[in-house]
Amino acid sequence: MSRRRGRDRAREAAASPQRKVDYRNLKNPFPPMNAFTEDRIEALHEASMTVLEELGIKVLLPEARRLFRAGGARVDETSEMVFIGRDMVEAALSTAPKAIQLRAGARHRDLELKLGNLAFQPGAGAPHATDLVRGRRPGSLRDFQEMVKITQSYDVLHMVPPLVEAQDIPMHLRHYAMTETELLLSDKMPFLYSRGTPQVMDGFEMIREFRGLSEEEFQAESHCYTIINTNSPRVIDMPMAQGLIDFARAGQMSVVTPFTLMGAMAPITVAGAMALSHAEALSAITLTQLAKPGAPVCYGTFTSNVDMKSGAPAFGTPEHFSASLVAGQLARRVGLPWRCAGGSAANVNDAQAANETQFGLWGCLMAGASVIIHSAGWLEGGLTVSYEKIITDLEVLQMVGELCAGTPATDADIALDALREVQPSGHFFGATHTMERFQDQFYEPVVADWSNFGTWTERGSVDANHRATGVWQRVVDNFQPPQHDPDRVDALKSFIARRTEQGGAAPES
To answer: What ranges does the record give for the region Disordered, renumbered to this chain (predicted)?
Structure first.
């Protein structure tokens, strides 16, 4: 009997490879959840087509109106309204790629965006930063650099967004500082602002030269991305339209994101807000394909509600959750990879902030989003990114990463030998099965403290928010940037110095 049990134990150990943690290429394991029946989704899609055909989209950029007219749209130059036919939309959806290969600074950071895949971004676009040490303040280049370091340090964050605005750098030079930061401190997928062609072309050249790419190699795949927000209701402004065109022609990805708040910039119902969001997204997607058929473009939405007493945005609400589910159904209807968003309207990193962010996150997960932005750190409805909240939200994101990595169920995992070994009323702490696995089998928390109350109070009763301060400080203080070719670093800095001497590039309005 003992020899047989020894053989069983040896087979069990051989059949139990060490767990490999891989948060870099996540697959959403959850079946998509529907908010509406399929016939209602079809009715919503048809309503969006009616909006485009009969009500139209106001397009402020003359070049964009010319592209729409050449593609068959009816254009009223006096009112700048563009009326887009269903055939144009269907043609655009037929050429827009259903999967987008994103080339990061290192091959192990590459991503493929498509339905079923999953990527996370931290909070983005905030004018302010906050932490428990320095307080709430206008965002600076230092804040952006530190947040990029944190983003780079966690594999479950896949893309670098514009976390906070570097407001201490003038607008005509800011894109140099922020792009340099992304290239030198991270090897993940970088973001570029769409604030006019001169700034966009600067960004393209910086990335192309730093990566050692020819013009043809750069245009063949997406090496950066931008986020395009329509001005709801029914306006594509000049910088955003130009960004759609510039990125499409260069073969780089645009993430189209109408920002529709129910009761404010959109109808107060989920269905009405999503009909508007869908119409705006399709109009922008159509423009990319008119500029260059096959251009990579990501369907997107950011739809929630407002507090009707104050007009303030609200996130992590039932309406936000439901809108995400509807967006997922519409994205599957058109077949494109798509972007959704979490976020919180809480003013500090408290229980409200955690609840809103997690509820919004689960709406995105259940909807089957390909990219989830504002998944860590976002406060005040996007006015602030919190260092501590990035860390506490990472706790949840890495739990999701574990779920996406899958739970094994081999014969060894079923652990029949361990059940034979441990007698009734015994424990499994010292069982052979446990000892062979405990160091590499389980999720390791970022900031959670699972000690009992007595031990916790003996150590000073530090809560998760304050523990997070120590975590981000250690990450920033001990950060090691990716290794880069010194000649390319020098060339990047020389390019920035030369363009700064020439006056930089002012954003276009």
So the answer is: 1-27
